[in-house]
Amino acid sequence: MISGLFPLAYAAVLTCLLLQAFRMMRLSSASAISSQSDRTGLKTTHPELLDENGVMTNEELWAVRFSDKERIVIPEA
Question: How far apart are CA 54 and CA 48, in angstroms?
């Protein structure tokens, strides 16, 4: 008798998990659309761009991208 309930319990748990997965995917796609705007409404600056006094640095900044295909360093200005 109990062995007959296992497939039913398995199907119920599987259905609940699938519903939760679809619900989470729906919530994450909705939050991705709303997260495109700044949540604070303020201009934000990365902390590494500030000097010891909290002022934006005037140093020349470099970005380096590593490419797997060519194995060379490409500086970006």
Answer: 10
Domain span at 52: 2-76
The pTM assigned to this predicted structure is: 0.38
Q: How many domains does the chain have?
A: 1
3-state SS assignment for residue 42: coil
Report CA-CA distances (Å) from 27 to 6, 7, 30, 47: 31, 30, 5, 30
* Beta-carbon-side half-sphere exposure of residue 67 (alpha carbons within 13 Å): 8
Q: Which two tokens stand for residue 13?
A: 């748990």
pLDDT exceeds 70 at position 69:
no
Spatial CA neighbour of 64 closest among 77, 50, 74, 55: 74
Looking at this protein, which amino acid is placed at residue 2? Answer: I
Q: What is the pLDDT of residue 67?
A: 67
| CB atoms closer than 10 angstroms to residue 39 | 8
